[in-house]
Write a structure and sequence with these properties.
The protein is mainly α and 288 residues long. Helices cover 73% and strands 2% of the residues. The protein has 12 helices and 2 strands, in the order αββααααααααααα. The chain has a two-stranded antiparallel ribbon.
C-alpha cells in the first residue's frame, strides 16, 4: 500500500528553522569568518587562513586550559555520578517524604549560575564567610584566593552542591520505573542488597545514567560563570578553564582571530563528545 506524503507540514516547521538559522548558524558563520582573517583595526580584514588554528593547537596556553577542563570534568563525574546514585537509592518511594525530597533536590537547580558563584564567593571568604571561618577555626589554612588547591576544592565542592541533584533526579526517575514484581522475585530468590542493585536497579538506570553523564560532562566542560565569579580564573591561572581563557582572549586582549579559532576548536570538541555519547546511547537501545 502506497502512502501519500503531505509535505505541507514543513511549512509549519519553517519558522523554527529560520529562528535556529538566525540565532545559531549566522553567529557561527561570523566566528568562522573571524577565525580565518586578521585585522589591524578600522574594520579592515586580511586573509590569514589556518594561521590562528595552528597557533592555538601549538599553544601551551590552550593545552593547559584543556587539561584543566578535562581534569575538572573527570573529578566532577567521579564524585557526582556515584553520589547521585547513592542518594537516589536511599530516597523514599512512597509517602509524604517523596515530594519533600524531590523539592529539596530541585532547589539547587533553580538558583542561577551567577548567584551560585556569588553565594560561594562570600561563603568561602576567610573574613566574613562561614566556610572560611570554620575551616580556619579547625586549624586548616584555607584561602581560595591565594591557594590553588583551595580554589580547586572550592570550585569542585560548589559544582557538586549545585549539580548532584540533577543526577539524583534522573536516577530516581529510573528507579521508580522498576515494577515491584522485580523486587518480589529477588526477595523470593533470597538476593542480597548488592545483587538487587547489580542485576535489577543498575540495568534499569543505564539509560538515565548515560544521559546524566552526557549532561554533566557537557556542563562541566563548558563551565564558566561559577568559577569566574568565585576565583576569576585564579589564583594565577590555576582555575582558568577554556571558557574563561576564551573570554579573556576575546574581550580582555581583543585577539579576535585566535579567540574565534579557539571557539571553533572548543565547539568541535564538544560536538565530537556529544556524538560519542549519542552513538553509545543509540547502540545501547539497539541491543535492547
Amino acid at each position: 500500500m502506497n502512502k501519500t506524503w503531505n509535505n505541507r507540514a514543513w511549512f509549519m516547521v519553517l519558522p523554527v528553522l529560520l529562528l535556529v538559522a538566525f540565532s545559531a548558524i549566522i553567529p557561527l558563520m561570523t566566528v568562522v569568518n573571524y577565525s580565518v582573517q586578521d585585522t589591524f583595526g578600522n574594520n579592515q580584514f586580511f586573509w590569514a587562513g589556518a594561521e590562528w588554528f595552528e597557533e592555538m593547537l601549538t599553544s601551551d596556553r590552550f593545552w593547559l586550559a584543556m587539561g584543566r577542563n578535562l581534569i575538572f570534568s573527570f573529578i566532577i563525574l567521579a564524585i557526582e555520578i556515584p553520589l547521585g546514585i547513592f542518594i537516589a537509592l536511599n530516597m523514599p518511594r512512597k509517602g509524604w517524604g517523596v515530594p519533600v525530597c524531590l523539592v529539596l533536590m530541585a532547589l539547587p537547580l533553580l538558583i542561577p549560575w551567577n548567584v551560585v558563584g556569588t553565594i560561594w564567593q562570600v561563603f568561602g571568604r576567610v573574613d566574613i564567610g562561614l566556610l572560611g571561618y570554620v575551616m580556619n577555626a579547625l586549624g586548616f589554612d584555607y584561602n581560595y584566593v591565594n591557594d590553588p588547591f583551595d580554589a580547586w576544592v572550592t570550585v569542585i565542592v560548589m559544582d557538586v552542591w549545585h549539580w548532584t541533584s540533577l543526577v539524583v533526579l534522573l536516577c530516581y526517575a529510573g528507579l521508580v520505573s522498576i515494577p515491584d514484581a522485580y523486587y518480589q522475585a529477588a526477595k523470593i530468590d533470597g538476593a542480597s542488597r548488592w545483587a538487587v542493585f547489580r542485576y535489577i536497579q543498575l540495568p534499569k538506570m543505564n539509560r538515565v545514567l548515560l544521559i546524566a553523564v552526557l549532561l554533566r560532562f557537557m556542563d562541566s566542560f563548558m563551565i564558566y560563570t561559577e568559577p569566574f565569579v568565585v576565583t576569576g580564573g585564579g589564583p594565577g591561572n590555576s582555575t582558568t578553564f577554556l571558557s574563561i581563557d576564551l573570554v579573556k582572549m576575546a574581550i580582555g586582549q581583543f585577539d579576535l582571530g585566535p579567540a574565534a579559532a579557539m571557539s571553533i576548536i572548543y565547539f568541535l570538541i564538544i560536538l565530537a563528545m556529544s556524538w560519542v555519547f549519542y552513538t553509545v546511547m543509540t547502540n545501547y537501545d539497539a541491543e535492547k
